[in-house]
């Protein structure tokens, strides 16, 4: 009887040891938050299911979405090999009650245009009013190597926004480095404030004495802030990328001709990520109604005084297609790199129209027929 009791005790001890081991293994599998961030101050952007109510407005510059690019639609795509994209980690955002404290207010590339602190204070007041109205504002800081930081401030975002935005922005930065030979030489910050609806976006712009009725986003170089209206899931990513490109252009080349600045922003906002690393990324191109809608390259290069006229819509479309064509073909991409590098020599002022013409002139007689032929191909392949 004594021997049997001893064996039973051994079995109990073994069972307890196994149980302790299993519990220890389970703890190793739990994904705990970083120890330096309070758990109560975290919110997972990935788990946000708050609906975004779309506001229908006239937007003459809207680009075709991936859903619109069916085989029977008036939309084309082309592929371009880019830096492979790895699956990003789940994003986490911090709550903030003082969004104005998040931004670096030092002037961009030290031009003789100081940051407008009154404008920045007014921006902060508007966001403080959102907090006072009972809404929670979140801040997410993204680090893009080696010198770029992105500050996103928002009340809510669509599922997966931060991961998609960051992956696409990395592609854009890679393009500026590999295609244009442009590199950041000092730390810079992109500050993007995402307004939850059309009313709050227009109100904030109006408080800054800006008529934003024909826009869904805007970059203010004198405050180094970009503003984005959240209309729907696809639009908010495209618009945030568009304004980020304006900011990047200001970092890399300073003040830039409007057609070049808008053309690059329109082009890069159309990125569609490849399904896997073995396939290239795709850029969606809205098809124009007529080839003659697209301005001649020389005419576009001298259009800076026309952007506040009725030609505005056509200028956006022409700038987009010219930039897309320059990016599509290697020889034309070299032209684009030459323009940007020349503009970057004096970051505090944009080159004059005649300076652009002189740089384009040597390639004009090949560039313009190539652009026209490329545009004509859209119509030759209509269903």
Please give the structural blueprint.
Layout: H1 2-29, E1 42-44, E2 75-80, E3 92-96, H2 117-132, E4 137-144, E5 148-154, H3 161-178, E6 188-195, H4 198-207, E7 217-220, E8 225-229, H5 233-253, H6 258-268, E9 271-272, E10 281-286, H7 297-301, H8 312-328, H9 330-343, H10 353-380
Parallel strand pairs: 5-6, 6-8
Antiparallel strand pairs: 1-3, 2-10, 3-4, 4-5, 7-8, 9-10
Helix pairs in contact: 3-5, 5-6, 6-8, 8-9, 9-10
InterPro entries: Peptidase_M4/M1_CTD_sf
Transmembrane segments: 12-30
Protein name: DUF1570 domain-containing protein
Description:
This protein is an alpha+beta fold and 383 residues long. It has a domain at 66-283. It has helices at residues 2-29, 117-132, 161-178, 198-207, 233-253, 258-268, 297-301, 312-328, 330-343, 353-380, and strands at 42-44, 75-80, 92-96, 137-144, 148-154, 188-195, 217-220, 225-229, 271-272, 281-286. β9 and β10 form a beta hairpin. The longest helix is centred in the N-terminal third of the chain and has 28 residues, at 2-29. The termini are far apart.
Short description:
Keywords: Membrane, Transmembrane, Transmembrane helix. The chain has ten helices and ten strands. With 383 residues, the chain is an alpha+beta fold.
Overall average pLDDT: 75
Ends apart, CA distance between termini: 91 Å
Strand order of the largest sheet: 1-3-4-5-6-8-7
Count of β-strands: 10
- Number of helices, where a helix is a run of at least 4 consecutive DSSP H or I residues: 10
| Major sheet characteristics | 7 strands, mixed
Shape: globular
Q: Helix-strand pattern, N to C? A: HEEEHEEHEHEEHHEEHHHH
Give the amount of beta strand, in percent.
Answer: 5-15%
Structural class by sheet pairing and helices: alpha+beta
Protein name: DUF1570 domain-containing protein
Keywords: Membrane, Transmembrane, Transmembrane helix
InterPro entries: Peptidase_M4/M1_CTD_sf (IPR027268)
Organism: Catenovulum maritimum
């Amino acid at each position: 009887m004594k021997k049997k009791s001893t064996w039973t005790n051994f079995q109990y001890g073994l069972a307890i040891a196994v149980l302790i081991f299993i519990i220890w293994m389970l703890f190793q599998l739990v994904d705990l938050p970083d120890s330096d961030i309070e758990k109560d101050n975290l919110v997972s952007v990935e788990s946000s299911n708050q609906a975004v109510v779309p506001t229908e407005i006239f937007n003459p510059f809207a680009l075709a979405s991936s859903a619109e690019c069916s085989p029977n639609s008036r939309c084309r795509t082309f592929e371009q090999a880019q830096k492979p994209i790895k699956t990003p980690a789940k994003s986490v955002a911090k709550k903030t009650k003082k969004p104005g404290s998040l931004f670096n207010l030092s002037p961009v590339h030290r031009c003789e245009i100081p940051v407008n602190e009154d404008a920045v204070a007014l921006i902060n007041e508007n966001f403080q009013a959102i907090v006072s109205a009972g809404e929670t504002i979140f801040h997410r800081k993204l680090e893009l190597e080696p010198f770029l930081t992105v500050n996103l401030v928002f009340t809510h975002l669509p599922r997966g926004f931060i991961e998609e935005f960051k992956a696409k922005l990395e592609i854009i930065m890679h393009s500026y480095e590999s295609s244009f030979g442009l590199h950041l030489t000092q730390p810079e910050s992109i500050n993007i404030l995402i307004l939850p609806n059309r009313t709050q976006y227009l109100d904030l712009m109006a408080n800054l004495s800006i008529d934003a009725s024909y826009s869904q986003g805007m970059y203010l170089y004198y405050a180094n802030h970009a503003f984005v209206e959240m209309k729907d899931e696809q639009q908010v990513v495209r618009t945030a990328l568009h304004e980020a490109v304006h900011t990047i252009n200001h970092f890399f080349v300073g003040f830039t001709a409007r057609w070049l600045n808008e053309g690059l922003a329109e082009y890069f906002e159309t990125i569609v990520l490849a399904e896997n690393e073995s396939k290239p990324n795709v850029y969606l191109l809205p098809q124009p109604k007529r080839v003659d809608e697209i301005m001649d390259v020389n005419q576009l290069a001298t259009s800076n005084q026309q952007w506040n006229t009725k030609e505005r819509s056509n200028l956006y479309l022409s700038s987009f297609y010219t930039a897309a064509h320059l990016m599509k073909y290697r020889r034309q991409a070299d032209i684009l790199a030459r323009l940007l590098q020349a503009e970057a020599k004096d970051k505090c002022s944009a080159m004059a129209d005649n300076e652009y013409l002189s740089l384009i002139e040597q390639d004009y007689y090949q560039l313009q027929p190539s652009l026209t032929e490329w545009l004509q191909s859209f119509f030759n392949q209509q269903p």
